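Key idea: predict the complex, not the pieces.
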Amino acid sequence: MILRRRSFVIKRMPGFTLLALACFFALYMPLAPLVVYSFNEGNNIALWEGFSLRWYQAAWENQLVQSAAIRSIVVATIASIIATVLATMVALATTRTRPYRGQTIIYAMVNQPLVVPEIVTAVALLILFALIKQATNYHGYAYLVIAHSAFCIPFAYLPIRARLEGMDRVLETAAADLYATPWRAFKRVTLPLMLPGIFAGAMLAFVISLDDVVITEFVKSAGQDTLPTYMLGQLRRSITPEINAISTVLLGISVLMVTLIFFLSRKKTA
Amino acid sequence: MSKTLAQQESLEAQAQRKEVKRNLLLSTPALIVLICAASGPLLIMVVFSFLTSGDYGGVKWEWSTEAWFQVAFYRDIFDDTVSIADAHLSILWRSVRLSFLTTLTAFVLGFPTAYFIATRPPETRNIWLFLVTIPFWTNLLIRTFAILEIIRNQGVVNTFLLMIGAIDQPLDMLYTDIAILLGMTYVYIPLMILPIYASMERFDFKLVEAAYDLYASRWKVMKRVILPLVKPGVVAGSILVFIPSLGAYVTPRVLGGGKNLMLGNLIELQFGQGRNWPLGAALSLTLLAIVMIALIVYVRSAQKQGATHDS
Amino acid sequence: MENTVAIDVSNVSKVFASGTAQEVKALDDVSVAIFKNEFFTLLGPSGCGKTTLLRLIAGFEHATSGSIQLDGAEISSLAPYDRPVNTVFQSYALFPHMTVAENIGFGLEMQGRSKTEVEATVSKMLGLVRMETLRDRHIDQISGGQQQRVALARALAPRPKVLLLDEPLSALDLKLRKEMQVELKRLQHETGITFVFVTHDQEEALTMSDRVAVMNAGKILQVDHPHEIYNRPNDRFVADFIGDTNFIRARIIDKGSTHMNLDIGGEKSIQLPTPSDLAIDGEITLAIRPEQARICGTEDSPIFEGKLAETIYIGTDTHYQIDIGTDSPFVIRVQNTSGEAQQLTQGDMVAIAVDSAVIQILRD
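Result:
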């Protein structure tokens, strides 16, 4: 008789691997039909009628989609630039410094958008901006830009702060020892070393702004749809594969950005 | 001598003062934006929750606690009789129940997944981690839409079940609580996996060897050694799933189909059809209060954890 | 060596977290003069204040009180970048985003020197630390020992008046450390720059320094040449921290002009010559190095007698622990020259002889 013995693996837990693989399957499986039907020839999102790019073309030629896409990118670009600059400054003021009065308040305020449910912030902004709109009769894009900038700050702040905290303060001390004034030490040593964190923060802020639905939905004035709010509106009506095509493009952008951030943050820290 | 002494003491204090001034100066621009579009609006909302609702939306500037009263009670418009606001409370209850179930489901699936990633060899670990990160950064609306597509009557799941003959009528999954639960779990599960993984990554598997050496079974190793040591990650993950679930707006709107409301949708109604802004503000603050309580419980437990680890 | 003072530290105190529960007095009224062109070492256990003193000289911290002068001019209010003093950091603190040459040239560039001058000095420095072939490498592409040399070259390049070295060798393995000790000594000779070196390694301090300051608990206990520090410690801490020492508590029974009798707790009192400068009466401590005592026959005028408690063989030497009636055993170190162990067994009575000239009498 052959005795079959299975060697004892220390880290193995029964069923865990199966559950984990099921989880990974569940994470990606729902995305497959979404992508596949975006290439469907027919105007149905259930019945496959052959490969075609007609819905991409339809989305591309749709005036509403075009303007929403441009609006999304413009708002995300401006908001992420503002958020990144401000977050970089706050990160410099809250890391590697002696504790000072007000530091906790600054920290709490920066992180507020992460803690307060989006719907609450959205409603609060709706109220405030309604008051301002009534008083000034201004209905422009500034509302969207400032709202997006605010909730992007903590997302830009996190990687920059992490990068700064991982940076040895002694490097700036060394620069000062070697006759660099504080400003030159910042320009030549601190800033170049924190750049990967700043890039990662800017990209996160961009993705977060681009993806936002709730706050935009409540803050936007008439005719200020971004791509996500346009899609949310479409989901109420009969759905065509055009939505799949837009989703697939957005999905692709997200994957691209995350991959970039992933490789950027894997670059060796100082 | 005494002169230099005084002079130098002020040098030290001067350097410190300069640093604090620099820090506050650097923080000011961000704080202005955050006050304008994050903390300031919250304060305005507190004021609004104490005003009287306007006839056609908006508010009348008359002080009133009516909105807060309406959160839990219903006043009949004709005879002014007061009863419990069943509609609001059942929505509140559904929100809490679904959020709790979402957290539980996410834990049951997410814990083994985090464990699986943490026990991969270092070369492949990052790839698995990356696979969790991608859906996390994908638009929430798209992911909800993906779930909508697969559970629709003509969706992949029903088509598959019909094909293999498991059912002869499509299952009505869309626009139910189950659909919302499924959607929220799908959308928020990376928030459970990532913090659990983070604390598991620091976990020293030599402890598991030691436990086995001391006659522990697999189950005992999990219960007595691994779980207690990764508990901070589990608690953090649970909070990160529970809070956005409680305030969820998009997922119940798309998958609940306007019937199965959650707190987020109820709040929105007050600014749309309901036209009761003060009530909407009061409901928002109620939601915020529940979230804050959950957060305080979390911080307390984290502090307790820290204290026991220090001693 | 002519003794012109380079750095004059007088009455410097440094208190951290002043006024709080965590208040720490890192330096307590410290005064010391460091001469031009000398290799001066601050030696002490961790937390003794030696690094704080170094950081005060560099300008990274401000003294709570006292003054620091460089070549006769007060520098305590100058920022680090205004002081002609450079530091070699314990962790090297090399800029990871710059090449070897860019690191070395950084200080010169910040001083606003011309490009050609920077180039020339960098080349000279690379030669000085024998790193010519690695000039365009990035910092993470060179070894720890090489990083150490770059850190040295970078700090020497602007030709500072004083070079401060904060435990620069502690991260190196033993062999490399020995090499760098020689290298540092050579660099100091070749450049003629004053070196102030901080270490907790007594051997390192004794081998490299012209003078050593032994520090403990924020105070400088003794400043002297290495052999004086070793042979004539003026303090129990100094004797204990540097090398191994037998300490014997003793009470003066009677003190004559030439000899005195001491009670060390054993059966018999011992007799020693009275030192001319003995100012203390009653309780004193005797310090005797293990290698300066020997086991002898009774005819050899022994000072103590005791029972052999333990013999420990450690290759080059053998240590004998002898119970002479004091709290801890008296240790004698004997070099194993003959290759045969001395024929002593545990429990034997042995006599101990010590040249009275090497016995240190310490204040407590």
